[in-house]
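Pasting as-is:
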Amino acid sequence: MIECSIPHHPTYDGICIDGCLYYQAIVDRGSGVSAIICFDVRSEKFSFIRKAQGAALWRESTLVDYKGRLGTLTADRDELTGETGEAQLYYIGMSANNEVLLSPRYPSSPFYVFYYNFERGTIRRVEIQNMDALKYGRIHTFLDHVEDVKLYTNV
């Protein structure tokens, strides 16, 4: 059991970068003030992460690993509107090319995932085909999933 001298209540899943676990937490339940807590696995010590001047930290903020450094993503609103109509997009992860992957949670036809590139300020829209069978329920999108579809038979 590791004791922490910082009274806090974790609110969302964290992210591990270079041996440190970062997560958002409420530090004052009465006011709902949140902060980012860092737990260094090697030293087993807790610390606060100070936010950058002018940066906002909301409960909806998502912690990301951007080129090996901690960052946060916060949307001004939950919806993006464009050629595809209106879709609620959710953060899935960062690609190997340091692009933010966004995906809808509910089926649509056509079904797209979006890659946002910070450096270029561009968005790539990628259509996922054969999603017509999914008409109800939620979509769970995973990054870097590889499935081996080889057929193995007993010889």
